[in-house]
Write a structure and sequence with these properties.
The protein has about 350 residues and is α/β, with parallel strands linked by helices. Helix content is about 40%, strand content about 15%. It is built from 15 helices and 8 strands. Strands 1-2-4-3-5-6-7-8 form an 8-stranded mixed β-sheet, with helices on both faces. The longest helix is centred in the C-terminal third of the chain and has 16 residues.
Length: about 350
């Protein structure tokens, strides 16, 4: 099979999904840091949706002066769950899931470099390695020492790279949704086109966002045209950044094979959850099996009738799967604990391994 590469998905958009129908409360300040709704109609909708989801916006400066914007839930005492969005997306992709999980978990949802309200990378580098390094600096700046990590599409590929760089020492579990990866058996015609240099996920002119939405979702929702145009104008303005992000992600093709990718996955010996839409047009459902098989301690959930964006198309089912997984994980020790003879293991190894 043609080799598939770490790549992301565009996604998105369509968070807009919620835009037209999910909020009824009056607009108000988004947080205590003085963020004001911007002039873009899409931004106004998203500010309202974050408020509905119980999220506030914060910002932190890391390393080389990059300002990272992130959403945070009000439950600061729960287990920390970091959520990473996909290509062409932003933190708002997670709003609907956050609405369902925010009362149980301390959610941290960053805009990745060059996306949303986060600065572009000062070095104009968007490899998974570079973005993972930025994210590690990000959690250090927040003083977080242990957390669960979830990523969608490009965010999934980034989460995998992050877990490899960090050797899983601080990451308690990994949740991968329609994750980018180097797959041996991806049958997606869309990915074939992307690898051939004909990227149908590129939003370069008016009307392109509708095409992206049709690819991203199995049943695209109605989105008010004014909101769609506002979103589209933001993406077109950032086209040079998105082109560089895609180029850097595709560049890994020359250096990583599926076998090498699987070796990296085998290093993550903590619990993992793989969630996929059966109708995913970017990373075919077969790749979910590849991913789950390569991870030492993985559970797989396939959602019928859903495309590449389960967190938007089926937010309740996605949040339900994530919540059940995290509850189960909290009741046992990861495989790594027993394998290393860690004195902090509080459960018998047979129970920790699910036996």
């Amino acid at each position: 099979m043609t080799r598939r590469i770490f790549q992301a998905s565009f996604i998105t958009a369509l968070m807009l999904v919620a835009s037209g129908c999910s909020t009824s409360m009056p607009a108000g300040p988004d947080d205590q840091t003085g963020e004001a709704s911007g002039p873009n109609l899409y931004d106004d909708f998203m500010a309202e949706e974050r408020q509905w989801a119980g999220l506030v916006t914060r910002r932190v400066t890391v390393g080389d002066g990059m300002k990272i914007a992130y959403s945070e839930s009000s439950n600061a005492s729960g287990p920390v769950l970091i959520l990473l969005h996909g290509y062409y997306g932003d933190r708002n992709n997670w709003n609907r899931v956050a609405h369902l999980l925010g009362d149980r978990y301390h959610l941290i949802i960053p805009d990745l470099p060059g996306h949303g309200d986060t600065d572009p990378d000062p070095d104009n580098r968007y490899t998974f390695g570079k973005m993972a390094s930025v994210m590690i600096d990000f959690i250090d700046a927040l003083g977080i020492d242990k957390f669960h990590l979830a990523g969608h599409s490009m965010g999934g590929g980034l989460a995998i790279q992050w877990s490899v760089l960090d050797f899983g020492q601080e990451i308690q579990s990994l949740i991968l949704i329609g994750s980018a990866g180097v797959y041996a058996n991806n049958t997606s015609p869309i990915m074939e086109r992307i690898l051939a240099g004909d990227n149908p996920m590129r939003i370069a002119q008016p009307g392109d966002a509708h095409k992206v939405l049709d690819i991203a979702m199995s049943l695209p929702p109605f989105i008010p045209e004014r909101v769609m145009k506002a979103y589209e104008s933001k993406q077109i303005a950032r086209l040079p950044i998105y082109d560089k992000v895609m180029s850097d992600m595709l560049g890994i093709q020359e250096h990583i094979s599926p076998d090498f990718f699987y070796v990296g996955l085998e290093r993550f010996d903590r619990p993992a959850l793989v969630i996929w839409g059966r109708e995913d047009k970017l990373f075919s459902v077969e790749t979910a099996g590849e991913l789950a098989s390569a991870l030492p301690d993985a559970t797989k959930v396939i959602i019928d009738g859903v495309g590449h964006t389960p967190l938007l198309e089926a937010a309740w089912l996605t949040a339900q799967a994530m919540g059940a997984f995290l509850v189960e994980v909290s009741g046992r020790q990861p495989l790594a604990c027993c394998a290393r003879g860690n004195s902090n293991c509080t459960l018998p190894c047979s129970e920790a391994e699910g036996g």
